[in-house]
Specification:
binds cobalt (II) ion; single chain; four-stranded parallel sheet; 275 residues
């Protein structure tokens, strides 16, 4: 089935948001554009879930809506079928509270209202992400070479945080020298370093497992502060390179969202239990 066979009237692309204009252009905007290009007969709109980000942007003169106000406006403008596509990586707190919960109350106001799933929701999503990650692995990284990639995910107190461990296990099973850690969840860098030593890795390339290379990527991952992953790995004797680009820059990664929009259209409505 081609994207145009199942066109909704509007696609609402929902990101956490960022206040860094440069990375936003390369990541969130690029993902929105990729989706818009795949569904040319649909109106593509944006919403950000982060209240703080929206407030800062408003002060700079840019209004970005949250999910309820974006849906209210689409309804006022007469759109009848909507797909809400999150750019989030895991179906965590933001996804449940700021997207699913909000969308549920608009359900009766449209002829169709479906929610696409985040990047990691179904078991098969993990190998799709791993394939997209392969596109950005440095050429020198291979199993047993002593060089590896360490991904910095966000992490969460939400049960969906287990997605990071599933991704780690899939990479191990696939023989990919990729290690997964999180800033605010589990595994932490400590556990990642134990695996690196076990596998005799000496040199790592740090990459954000995040759509946008914002504060976490620039400071917590690549920064010179002694607490950054960059500094902590160096202090433990690892050679470190930093790849400060959000996943949203990766064309193969952008394409995952297009396929999730398609899946949402075909599944009629995934409002209750996506994935
Ligand atoms: Co954070």
């Amino acid at each position: 089935m081609s994207p145009t066979d199942v066109a909704p009237s509007a696609i609402l692309v929902v990101a956490f948001g960022t206040t860094y204009p440069e990375t936003r252009r390369l990541t969130i905007d690029a993902c929105e554009q990729r989706i818009a290009a795949a569904f040319p007969e649909c109106e593509t709109r944006r919403a950000f879930t982060s209240t703080i980000v929206r407030r800062i942007l408003a002060r700079r003169g840019e209004e970005v809506q949250d999910v309820p106000s974006a849906l209210a406006r689409l309804r006022e403008e007469g759109f009848r079928r909507i797909v809400v596509q999150p750019l989030h990586i895991i179906p965590g707190e933001e996804f449940h509270r700021k997207i699913l919960f909000e969308v549920a109350s608009y359900r009766n106001q449209f002829a169709g209202l479906a929610v696409g799933r985040p990047i990691l929701a179904r078991n098969e999503d993990y190998s799709v992400l791993a394939l997209a990650l392969k596109e950005q692995l440095p050429a020198t990284v291979s199993a047993g070479s002593g060089e590896a990639v360490v991904l910095m995910g966000h992490g969460s107190a939400h049960p969906a945080n287990a997605a990071y461990s599933q991704l780690q296990l899939l990479c191990e099973d696939a023989g990919l020298p990729v290690y997964v850690g999180t800033v605010e969840g589990y595994p932490e860098l400590e556990q990642v370093m134990t695996r690196l030593r076990r596998d005799r890795v000496r040199r790592v390339t740090l990459m954000p497992l995040m759509v946008v290379a914002g504060d976490h990527a620039v400071n917590d991952m690549a920064g010179d502060d002694p607490d950054s992953w960059n500094s902590r790995l160096r202090a433990e004797g690892f050679e470190v390179d930093c790849y400060v680009h959000g996943l949203g820059e990766n064309a193969a990664f952008q394409e995952i969202y297009v396929s999730h929009v398609l899946d949402a259209l075909q599944a009629d409505s995934e409002v209750d239990e996506p994935g």
